[in-house]
Amino acid sequence: MALEIRLSAVTVDYYPGTAWQTRALAGVNLLVGENEQIALLGPSGAGKSTLLRVMAGLLVPGEGQAVIPEGGRVALALQEPQRGFFAATAWEEAAFGPENLGLAAGEVEERVRWALGAVGLPEEKWSWSPFALASGEQRRLALAAVLAMRPRFLLLDEPVAGLDGRGKRDLSRILRELVEKTGMTLVITAQEADFLFPLTRRVLVMDRGVLVADTSWGRLGEDPAVLEELGLELPAALRLLYRLAEKGAPVVPGQESVEGAMEEFRKLLG
Amino acid sequence: MVFGRYYPVASFWHRRDPRVKVFVLAVLVAMALLAKDLWWQVLVFAVCLGLFLTARLPGIWVLRTLHSFRWLLGLIFLLNLFLTRAGNPLVRVAGFTLTDYGLYLASAYFFRLASLLLGGAWLMGTTEPMLMVRGIAAFLRPLRRWLPVEEIALVIGMALRFFPLLLEEAGEITLAQRARGVDFRRQRWDRKIKGLLAMVIPLFLSVLRRSGELTQAMEARGFVPGAFRTSHVELEWERGDTFSAGLSFLFFLAGLAWRWIAG
């Protein structure tokens, strides 16, 4: 049976019944299936992190229903995931998740080996303390720690915040390879549309706890007023295409993928 | 956990001068500690309850506060109940003779501690930490010649301010480790211990990191220990403050009189 995450009319309040009560999610309906790559956009405070927590089964909605696959098949890496480090070595850190799933030692070892390899952490550093790693390596280790649970759904909350250019490129490559090899579903929040564009197809937009759009990169640019209001930016490639189209160049600006956008540029340049 | 958190609503007590509130609490503490009489303890508890509710703090916090300290409250109650020999015997339980005086004392101690907890929650719930610093500093003032009074008050204020943040941080870390499969309800004890380590170590590291950052932030903004400082919030004494302070003082006198009469 195909796995899916299904949210119906999900509402979440923080500190219900007190003076701090704030509505984080209001009536969100969402269906996420296997092998989908999704960008989750919205200004800060829009409810993106809360939505990911509900999707990961860490937060039970106050109203509505969340149906989520069990047994480590949905994994969430929170913002600054390295804050959860505690183990003596990188290997143990990555093994913590699969051990918690109650797997046999051999299976745990195989998964850890695979996960640390997938994020490209050099083998000689597997026995290092997680705190001795450089910050980019710590991020990759944190990713390996969730990957070792072999999720079918990988939810990443602001994975590029604080990463340098090289760190971003590395992460992008790692995620693309993972999707190619495993057909894993990705849901990623980030402020940088340029990071998300090559990795994702479907685009969710949130504002003040409401899912205001469930669309794609190609259709996202059709309503510039909405983007303007939410302070969201299209990827640079799409912005350029829209500008060219505005000036009368023979291009189709609403492209769904990086490859499509590149094709338009190629046609234009003859 | 709600104990020790500031609760942002408007009430008579929220508007009061922090010095008055510290004074009110000091009187309550004195009253709770001076008298052994059960009915007096019940009265002090009722006053605390009244303060709590007139400050528009959520009534459920009374129960939550008591619930948070249930082990301490329970232990003190049981120790007094079981270990008091004086009085008329009531029943025998597991080789201990429970007496009416034991029950009386146990109840008195229970109310005494409950009053202290509730009073503390009331002060912290109605007073922003930085104002509380001013209130506490005002009372420590006479000791200024011997002690760094301002700094002590500042440290207390910061500890209070960071307490809720710390709880929030603990919540975040718990969430992060649950995302990695920690499940205290279903796991075996050896996994639970490892899970506990996975919470405690990151929290400890975060506290160290935070305090280091705070020190740097304060130094970057020119904080010099022991230097003379002014405040940009002027405390204003209102009629309600005089009224509250006066009433507390009368309560204090009444307590002394009671103690004197009751012996």
What does the model show?
The complex is a heterodimer of chains A (270) and B (263). With 270 residues, chain A is an alpha/beta fold. In chain A, 37% of the residues lie in helices and 21% in strands. In chain A, the strands form two sheets. Chain A has a six-stranded mixed sheet with strand order 5-6-7-3-8-9, with helices on both faces. A three-stranded antiparallel sheet of chain A has the order 2-1-4, with helices on one face. In chain A, helix 2 packs across helix 3. Chain B has a domain at 12-150 and 241-262. Chain B is 71% helix and 3% strand. A two-stranded antiparallel ribbon of chain B has the order 1-2. In chain B, strand 1 (89-93) and strand 2 (96-99) form a beta hairpin. At the A-B interface, strand 5 and helix 2 of A face helix 8 and helix 9 of B.
The main pleated sheet of chain B reads as: 2 strands, antiparallel
- List the helices and strands of chain B in order: HHHHHEEHHHHH
How much helix is in the residues of chain A?
25-40%
Radius of gyration of chain B: 22 Å
The helix content of chain B is over 70%
> Tally the helices of chain A: what do you get?
10
Low-confidence spans of chain A: pLDDT under 50, at least 5 residues? Answer: none
The chain-level structural class of chain B is mainly alpha
- Extended strand count of chain A: 9
Mean pLDDT score of chain B: 85
Strand content of chain B: under 5%
